[in-house]
Amino acid sequence: MGWLLKQGKNTLYWTIPEWTSFGVRLAFSTIQGGQSTGSYSSLNLGLHVNDNPRNVLKNRKLFLAEFGCSLDDCIAAEQIHGTKVQIVTAEQKKSGMYDYADSIPACDGLLTTDPLLGLMAFFADCVPLYFYCPRTKIIGLAHAGWRGTVNNIAKEMLDKLKLAGASAAECQVAIGPSIGACCYQVSSDVAAIFREKFGNPPFLTPAEQGKFHLDLKEANRYLLISEGVLPKNIISSDLCTFCQAEYFYSFRRAQVTGRMAAFIIRQDCEQRGGSIIDVQNSQEKT
């Protein structure tokens, strides 16, 4: 089981096909298949990066159509690099989907039990975390940059899941594409914050000129396991958003750029059109 590239009807995206056996669809978009131009070419899904909003809405419709969904079926949050997690319901449908100003405010994690409610979050190097609890049928999606990681948004998600009746040991978690340790260097000040929280963690290693390589995906995997998620239930992508410019936007690489979307929905539906593409470096790493 692992992350694989799929050519949909309109767009190219990464997914874990085996999650459909849970009655869950999840995806992480690429840059390909959209209407945006210039620095945002072509499938920019972020409304907050000064792209033409009409193009962004067209792109969102193209992407969501791969899963039989519309903008009216989904919810997005403001994302402020924090750790606030909110449980959302059908009453909040469309929040953040047509207008960034009405996103779920000051929030970086969403959870829902609604079987037809899609969750979306937006990325250009940070780590997407997908959650599913088979017994309680709860799905979740979190945005974890270095601040969200060091302040343990993974724990906040699991704490909310536990309050809703789930347990960490039964949760399935997917860690999506993000900037890799190969390309992500942080200052000694940031490294000191991680060391203060975690001692001398294996996901932080010295680099040149007093900087450090930080493996955000491995850091989140470490935190998930420390909170009781079973290693066998974690699927982690080894794709790097900085390295692999043919698939991904990267804020570190380009500064002015678009955003990919992470998407999850609990939807018992037939597999829709599209074919899986065999791509190197797309397998699981647990």
Structure notes:
This protein has 286 residues and is an alpha+beta fold. It has a single domain (4-179, 230-268), classed as CNF1/YfiH-like putative cysteine hydrolases. 19% of the residues lie in helices and 24% in strands. The chain has helices at residues 53-65, 146-150, 153-163, 188-198, 216-226, 251-254, and strands spanning 4-7, 12-15, 24-29, 74-76, 85-87, 109-112, 118-123, 127-133, 138-144, 172-175, 185-186, 204-206, 212-214, 234-236, 260-266, 275-277. The strands form three sheets. A seven-stranded mixed sheet has the order 4-7-15-3-2-1-16, with no helix packed on it. A hairpin with an 8-residue loop joins strand 2 (12-15) and strand 3. The radius of gyration is 17 Å and the shape is globular. The protein starts with a strand and ends in a 9-residue tail after the last strand.
